[in-house]
Amino acid sequence: MPIKKAAKKALRQAKKKEERSKKIKKYLSYQERKFNKAIIVSDLNKAKEIYLILQKALDKAAGKGIIKKNNASRKKSRLSKKIKNLGKNK
């Protein structure tokens, strides 16, 4: 356990940041699961709707430093590729 006042504060801040990050990452994975379910069911409109929400959430997470910028970009690219393939199959 930290002894100095500054170290105690740093620990409190780290815990808060960790909680926030976990909450956002959990939300991202939830939206990704919803998106994948829509793709499996071949519901193009719902998939596009969820994609827009997910895209915004990924950009926000990347901006806050929760995930890396390239990671967010790669995920968005793969999701849009799935939508494109779903549109071709119909």
What kind of sheet is the major sheet? none
Overall pLDDT score? 95
Structural class: mainly alpha
Number of strands: 0
* CA-based gyration radius: 18 Å
Low-pLDDT regions? none
Helix content: over 70%
Order of helices and strands: HHH
Q: What portion of residues belong to β-strands?
A: under 5%
Estimate the global geometry from the Cα principal axes.
elongated
List keywords for this structure.
90 residues; mainly alpha; 0% strand
Structural summary, described in words:
This protein has 90 residues and is mainly alpha-helical. The chain has helices at residues 5-41, 44-64, 69-89. It is elongated and about 65 Å long.
Write the layout of secondary structure elements.
Elements: H1 5-41, H2 44-64, H3 69-89
Task: Give a brief description.
This protein is mainly alpha-helical. The protein has helices at about 5-40, 45-65, 70-90.
